[in-house]
Design brief:
Blueprint lengths: L2 H21 L6 E4 L2 E4 H26 L5 H24 L5 H23 L8 H18 L12 H23 L1 H6 L2
Antiparallel strand pairs: 1-2
């Protein structure tokens, strides 16, 4: 297994740690951050999320630069992103920081694209993520990171940057999903 695939797997292994930090009521205190409170456990979870999200960029860059792109990587990398983003968004609902309807649309798009990838895989075709999908992932990661940090540093000026980024991510999620299906409709049409 090459380094980019190991980085992708490390992202998957960070998810349970991230979930525990946000699900277990650790009494580590909190910080005043302008108009909000940031629990230390949420800060640590956000750092883990940011590190996990960064491995997405590093593994892709390294795989392309050193020609280490594999079918396993093309499959596992978007799956790792979906697992990380889905876990984070569901926890943000529980924390009262994200509306459920937005999360439902985002996760539904992820299931739909994964379904298309599975149909393609059954036909021996591997569908890699396109540029729109990468933009979608980037906006989702920024939105989630800021929301996990309870809108820090924007909480000092009382500007809802995290919420704004979540709606921007929703826009790119829908647009990239439509784009992905339009570009790969032949897979569904020609499947046996």
């Amino acid at each position: 297994m090459n380094l980019p695939n190991k980085l992708t797997l490390s992202r998957i292994f960070m998810i349970p740690v991230f979930i525990v930090l946000l699900s277990v009521p650790f009494e580590w205190g909190s910080w005043d951050i302008g108009s909000a409170q940031l629990p230390v456990a949420h800060f640590v979870a956000a750092i883990i999320f940011i590190i996990a999200a960064a491995t997405d960029w590093v593994d892709g860059y390294y795989a392309r630069k050193y020609n280490l792109v594999t079918n396993l990587g093309k499959f596992m990398d978007p799956l790792a992103d979906k697992l990380l983003v889905s876990a984070a968004l569901i926890l943000l609902i529980e924390m009262g920081l994200a509306p459920a309807w937005v999360v439902i649309i985002i996760i539904s798009r992820e299931f739909a694209v994964t379904g298309l990838r599975l149909v393609a895989a059954g036909e021996g075709i591997v569908l890699a993520a396109g540029q729109m999908g990468k933009l979608k992932t980037a906006t989702q990661m920024v939105a989630i990171a800021v929301l996990l940090l309870h809108n820090f540093p924007f909480s000092f000026i009382d500007f809802p940057f995290g919420t704004m980024m979540l709606y921007i991510a929703l826009f790119f999620t829908v647009v990239s999903g439509v784009d992905y299906f339009v570009k790969n409709w032949h897979v569904m049409r020609d499947s046996k």
